[in-house]
Amino acid sequence: MATTKLEVKCIKRAGNVNAHEHITHIGGIHLNQKWEVSVPNAIARIEAGTHQFFVTQGFNTAEIGVVNMSNGTKYLRTIKDGTLTDNLLSLPECSI
After folding, report:
1. Along the 96 residues of the chain, how does pLDDT read in single tens digits?
2. What is the pTM of this model?
3. C-alpha closest to that of 52 among 76, 22, 25
4. How far apart are CA 27 and CA 63, in angstroms?
5. Which is nearest to 62 in space by CA: 75, 81, 47, 45?
6. Is residue 37 within 8 Å of residue 27, measured between CB atoms?
7. C-alpha span between 27 and 10 (Å, rounded)
8. What gap in Å lies between CA 78 and CA 96, rounded to an integer?
9. Which of 27, 49, 52, 80 is the most buried (most CB within 10 A)?
């Protein structure tokens, strides 16, 4: 099965908190259709290998990966050149 690659263009946060664990959804446009998935759903898709999500800023593209914290919590974070960065928080709020 082919992996679907989706560019993330926006995020939704829980309330007005700006910490990474409070991103609730990611979204974008694919084949002229708006899409939005919850963070747990995106994590499951990445771990299953069915989807790859990425962020493009300027000429730079960063893949989104899953970070496993020591307490078992998982969250999404961009990975550029093998280094964890935080490009998701710089995305605008989704209006999808």
Report:
1. 689 999 999 999 887 655 545 889 999 999 999 999 999 999 999 999 999 999 988 788 889 999 999 999 899 988 876 555 667 888 899 885
2. 0.85
3. 76
4. 14
5. 81
6. yes
7. 5
8. 21
9. 27
